[in-house]
Recover the amino acids of this structure.
């Protein structure tokens, strides 16, 4: 670079250093240049921000549901591609708050290059995330498609689990009917005290007491409104700041107001293939997770692993209908259900399918009258098996705690599916041990390494889904970068930019060559393969814009 003029800066003092000391000297802040450094030159060609740029440019944003057409009146809108790039960059670099992202637009050279210097405000930024949860899910799907193209999705072994993300709501703002009744009772007692004091006082004190009564009546009306809302919705809880969040157990009986994110990960490279934000536990989620995995993988020839929280008979029936092999950890039998003597626990009673009866360790047969009963919450139906021999059995005290009816065994309508799962777990103990290392890798990265243990958004579960969606997009992109590398990913994405969708004769031969090259990459993943194919990829992408 050619220097044209040297400005003296009277405000800066030159520090005299001993001649024996050598340091790297900075440039004078007042120095000007004939050929200034461009923004493009300031960002290294291997910088992953260039990958984010070409990744977003390769997406069909309008088809995903991002709003790309606006009315001409008023101030022009920011293009959704720019805001999407900003969010992906932010989540990849542990920057989620809108004000921090807005600040980076003014001081971060990488963000300036990525957005070409626009500076969206702290209201525009979160509104984009709030308004596009479904479109963000489709962006996530693109990361899965890229992984499938490079043969990084095995599709033979998957694992599902859930993790809690704290909501932007406190326990004080979370209510159930018992909590509402407790507050109403407290208010009624306070009103009684104030009314008694009002009858005994007058003057200035009377005015103050009347003001307190008014405040308590307003609070009473608010709690009654919450109770009415609970009855109308049929929900067990309600949160005032984040209506979609619920108070759930996180660990060791510690509760938090949170969302429960259900995820499915592939075993080959621990990539996430599906996610969904919920506000319930996972007992009823297992059936839907393999169904979505089947749609994504386009096959049902895979094994799905889940922990004991998903051990529900009705969900096994769904996976059986889908033809998917599932292995779910078997929960321990509650102590209240155990017999006084371990030898007489239910698992030691043998069921006979032909006679439809159980045989106890003493040789007595327990039979059912054929009547089906439903659980208190209508979760499933069951039959009861018993025998009159219990009344005169010598070991009754070791077999059951019941003093009159004797031993009763309940057999649910899903017992066959539960027993089949038990056999699969016994036969595949080594396979099931892989579950934790598959599902915990994403959670450890997102929550421990990146610090994303809470949801940024408020108001609804759809907004929480958008925030969690960006977490999953960032995680998959980070895994793809670590496995494949920025350069190869950038070249692949550049090759599928919309310009290559042209049907002109100029691009047809190039598309044919690109298809052949793609097959080579897909079948050979490794450093050696990339080294051999890199010149060809570079030659194909030379007509693309400079990166």
């Amino acid at each position: 670079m050619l220097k044209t003029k040297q400005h003296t800066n009277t405000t800066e003092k030159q520090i005299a250093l001993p001649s024996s000391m050598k340091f790297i000297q900075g440039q004078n802040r007042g120095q000007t240049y004939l050929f200034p450094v461009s923004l493009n030159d300031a960002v290294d060609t291997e910088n992953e921000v260039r990958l984010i740029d070409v990744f977003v440019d390769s997406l069909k944003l309008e088809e995903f549901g991002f709003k790309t057409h606006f009315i001409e009146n008023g101030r022009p809108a920011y293009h959704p591609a720019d805001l999407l790039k900003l969010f992906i960059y932010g989540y990849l670099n542990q920057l989620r708050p809108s004000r921090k992202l807005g600040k980076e637009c003014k001081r971060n050279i990488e963000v300036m290059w990525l957005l070409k210097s626009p500076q969206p405000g702290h209201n525009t930024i979160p509104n984009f995330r709030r308004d596009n949860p479904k479109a963000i899910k489709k962006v996530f799907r693109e990361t899965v498609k890229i992984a499938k193209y490079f043969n990084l999705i095995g599709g033979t072994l998957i694992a599902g689990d859930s993790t809690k993300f704290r909501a932007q709501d406190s326990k004080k703002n979370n209510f159930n009917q018992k909590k509402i009744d407790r507050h109403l009772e407290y208010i009624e007692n306070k009103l009684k005290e104030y009314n008694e004091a009002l009858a005994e006082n007058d003057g200035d004190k009377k005015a103050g007491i009347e003001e307190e009564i008014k405040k308590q009546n307003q609070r009473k009306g608010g709690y009654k409104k919450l109770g009415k809302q609970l009855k109308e919705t049929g929900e067990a809880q309600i949160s005032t700041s984040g209506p979609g969040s619920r108070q759930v157990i996180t660990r060791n009986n510690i509760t938090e107001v949170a969302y429960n994110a259900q995820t499915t990960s592939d075993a080959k490279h621990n990539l996430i293939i599906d996610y969904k934000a919920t506000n319930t536990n996972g007992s009823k989620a297992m059936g839907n997770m393999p169904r979505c995995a089947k749609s994504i993988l386009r096959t049902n020839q895979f094994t799905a692993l889940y922990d004991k929280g998903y051990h529900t008979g009705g969900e096994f029936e769904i996976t059986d209908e889908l033809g998917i092999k599932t292995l779910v950890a078997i929960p321990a039998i509650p102590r209240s259900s155990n017999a006084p003597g371990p030898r007489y626990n239910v698992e030691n009673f043998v069921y006979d399918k032909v006679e439809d009866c159980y045989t106890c360790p003493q040789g007595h047969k327990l039979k059912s009258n054929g009547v089906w009963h439903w659980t208190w919450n209508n979760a499933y139906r069951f039959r009861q098996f018993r025998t009159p021999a219990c009344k005169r059995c010598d070991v009754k005290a070791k077999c059951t705690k019941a003093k009159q009816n004797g031993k009763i065994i309940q057999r649910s309508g899903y017992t066959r599916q539960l027993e089949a799962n038990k056999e699969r777990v016994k036969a595949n103990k080594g396979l099931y041990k892989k579950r934790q290392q598959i599902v915990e890798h994403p959670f450890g990265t997102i929550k421990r390494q990146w610090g994303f243990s809470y949801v940024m958004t408020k108001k609804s579960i759809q907004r929480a889904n958008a925030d969690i969606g960006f977490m999953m997009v960032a995680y998959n992109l980070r895994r793809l970068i670590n496995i494949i590398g920025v350069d190869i990913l950038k070249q692949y994405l550049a090759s599928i930019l919309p310009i290559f969708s042209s049907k002109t004769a100029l691009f047809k031969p190039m598309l044919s060559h690109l298809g052949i090259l793609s097959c080579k990459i897909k079948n050979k993943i490794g450093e050696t393969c990339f080294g051999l194919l890199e010149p060809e990829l570079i030659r194909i992408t030379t007509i693309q814009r400079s990166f």
In short: The two ends are 22 Å apart (CA to CA).
